[in-house]
Amino acid sequence: MYLLIVMLVALAAFAAVVFYPRRVSAHCDTMDGPTVKDGKLALERNDLNYALKWIAADDTEELRKIFAQSIKVRALGPDAEDLADRFFLESLVRIHRAGEGAPFEGLKPSGTPVDEKIVVADKCVETGVLGPLIELVVPNAVDELKHRFAKVMSLKNYDPDDVGGGRAYVQAYVSFVKFAEGEDHDHHRHDVHGLHHH
């Protein structure tokens, strides 16, 4: 009965995503986004540490319970695995967004268009080369962009078991992406770990 309830909750969450009209509002709300990618990695490796960096420490216990439930349901078969995975990923992004003080309207499907600057910013982090993004931002933002990029790169190679190190990386990454989008140009002296929409 317990597993059935979990599966029904997951199915309800999935239905809400499919039938609720949405517009793209955030990078992390997509199935292609970094939060979901790390969530999938956590499920594949049965290691929640890959996902914990995307949520605040205060929310750890909630996500641990959801993860444990999802792992149990995954073992029931392919359909159950799909539902359990969706339930966990939805929960991860929902908790992440709530920690930002941002609304969550469900996960957008793979292939959902996102701002070109976000795509290029992610590529820069992946390759370690900032040049392509510099061409897309206003000239007076370049110095701050370089500063934020350097911080991201300095924190990138953290140990997955070092959740604090992972959270420091995510903070720097979100700050960098926000600035690349142009959302943070007037406030770049402030700490952006609190309310950041990406």
- Averaging pLDDT over every residue, what do you get? 84
Shape assignment: elongated
Helix content: 55-70%
Given as residue ranges, the uncertain stretches (5+ residues, pLDDT < 50) are: 4-25, 186-197
- Total domain modules: 2
Helix and strand composition category: mainly alpha
Rounded to the nearest angstrom, the distance between the terminal CA atoms is 38 Å
- What count of helical segments does DSSP give? 9
- State the order of secondary-structure elements, H for helix, E for strand: HHHHHHHHH
Question: How many whole angstroms does the radius of gyration measure?
Answer: 17 Å
Q: Oligomeric form of this entry?
A: single chain
Beta content comes to under 5%
The main sheet comes to: none
Number of strands: 0
Summarize the structure.
This protein is mainly α and 198 residues long. It has helices at 2-19, 34-45, 49-52, 60-74, 78-100, 116-127, 131-134, 142-155, 163-181.
Structure in words:
- This is LysM domain-containing protein.
- Pfam families: DUF6448.
- It comes from Brucella tritici.
- The protein is mainly α and 198 residues long.
- It folds into two domains: 2-100, no CATH class; 116-187, no CATH class.
- Helices cover 61% and strands 0% of the residues.
- It has helices at 2-19, 34-45, 49-52, 60-74, 78-100, 116-127, 131-134, 142-155, 163-181.
- Helix 6 crosses helix 9 (163-181).
- The radius of gyration is 17 Å and the shape is elongated.
